[in-house]
UniProtKB/TrEMBL annotation:
PANTHER family: OXOGLUTARATE/IRON-DEPENDENT DIOXYGENASE. The keyword Cell division does not apply. One of its GO terms (molecular function) is oxidoreductase activity. Belongs to the iron/ascorbate-dependent oxidoreductase family. This is Fe2OG dioxygenase domain-containing protein. It comes from Ceratodon purpureus. Keywords: Iron, Metal-binding, Oxidoreductase. Residues 223-325 form the Fe2OG dioxygenase domain.
């Protein structure tokens, strides 16, 4: 299967090649978007080409949508009595209206986030053989390692993205030996950054408790022992950005995701029927809520569909860290948020089952919640 795929991609690449451009190294994975772009192709192989309808919904990575902007929140305001109320209100509105916000003054040294991103970016510049020495098991959707195509759906079109995925918590699945060993500082820096993200998300969950009228610690406790993992998303520049997606539309299944993006841009969030670019802000982190929070909050907070578009000029690397519930817990609406006038909008189901459906049934370019819950 993989071999046939590789042969087909190779044939397409050869058709696309300009005279005098050498054939990219395709490796045992079949191919990767970095080498495809570096080979100088003018057209993307068919496997990546979106349907005509999907192509009509393309919005370039660098336009600002009229009047629409993901909220930017100064978390420093939570420590300042005079600004606390306004900061809480801004977080509440972002969680209700967008499911996404950017944060500044978030209590992690921006240099640590920047350095973690830089080391992750350097990994993708290693020779292909070195990256593939850490290849993930393509049959196991949650295995650590380098690879392609994390999200699946009935649409078999491929995303214009190479990736590295690995766990940080729980320790039983961390497998630090499978993390990038080059650049040399990667593992230690990622651990340090991961510990900070854990603290940051603890703080945000406590704020969400307060906003939802839940007792402090409710969300953290109800989600059990945290599972924390990271995906390094490498989007090569692309000769035909209008015809592909860097990452298909999806919502995250987990509790909360914290993203370091660079200054290239390409992340888009769905607001009503419109795709809105998340304009990069130096030093800011992007936070988005996952389906587990939408479920726990009984729909008061939103987990919103997002996608990534590519561009012709520059490669982009994003580092997405995902805080999940434990696979041992059930997720469901908080009992305090369910009453006669607010019936439970979602059944209580095991997170293991919910997450498995994310990987098994795929995302199909639409919000996972109704999909997963209508077919538990
Ligand atoms: O690359 C991005 O900006 C978004 C990545 C993302 O949505 C994800 O990894 O789930
Ligand atoms: Fe995502």
């Amino acid at each position: 299967m993989v071999k046939e795929f590789a042969k087909e991609a190779m044939a397409q690449v050869q058709r696309d090649l300009q005279p005098n451009i050498s054939v990219p190294r395709l490796g045992s994975l079949g191919y990767n978007v970095k080498d495809l772009f570096d080979s100088g192709i003018n057209h993307v192989p068919e496997k990546f080409v979106q349907t005509a309808t999907a192509q009509e919904a393309f919005i370039p990575h660098n336009v600002t949508s009229k009047g629409l902007q993901i909220p930017v929140i100064d978390l420093g305001g939570l420590q300042d009595e005079s600004r606390r109320g306004a900061t809480l209100a801004a977080i509440e509105s972002a969680c209700q209206e967008w499911g996404f916000f950017q944060i500044i003054n978030y209590g992690i040294p921006p240099s640590l986030a920047e350095n973690t991103h830089k080391l992750a970016r350097e990994f993708f510049d290693l020779p292909q053989e070195e990256k593939e020495a850490l290849a993930r098991d393509p049959q196991n959707p949650v295995s650590n390692g380098y690879g392609r195509q994390f999200l699946t759906s009935t649409n078999s079109t491929e995303d214009w993205q190479d990736l590295f995925f690995h766990h940080l918590l729980p320790l039983s699945i961390k497998q630090k030996d499978s993390w990038p060993s080059k650049p040399a500082a990667y593992r230690e820096t990622m651990e340090e950054y991961g510990a900070e993200v854990l603290k940051l998300t603890d703080r945000l969950l406590d704020v969400f408790d307060e906003l939802l009228g839940l007792k402090t610690g409710y969300l953290r406790e109800s989600f059990g022992d945290t599972m924390l993992n990271v995906r390094l998303n490498f989007y090569a520049a692309c000769p035909e950005p209008k015809r592909v997606l860097g990452l298909r539309a999806h919502s995250d299944p987990n509790v909360i995701s914290v993203l370091i993006q660079d200054q290239v841009g390409g992340l888009q969030v769905k607001k009503g029927n419109q795709w809105v670019n998340v304009t990069p802000i130096p030093g800011a982190l992007v936070v988005n809520l996952g389906d587990s929070i939408q479920i726990a909050s009984n729909g008061r907070f939103q987990s919103v569909e997002h996608r990534v578009v590519t561009n012709q000029g520059a490669a982009r690397l994003s580092l997405a860290m995902f805080r999940h519930p434990s696979v041992d817990v059930d997720i469901g609406p908080a009992p305090e948020l369910v009453d006669a006038s607010h019936p439970a909008l979602y059944p209580t189901i095991s997170y293991a089952a919910y997450r498995a459906s994310f990987h098994r049934k795929g995302v199909n370019g639409k919000h996972l919640l109704p999909y997963a819950i209508s077919r538990p």
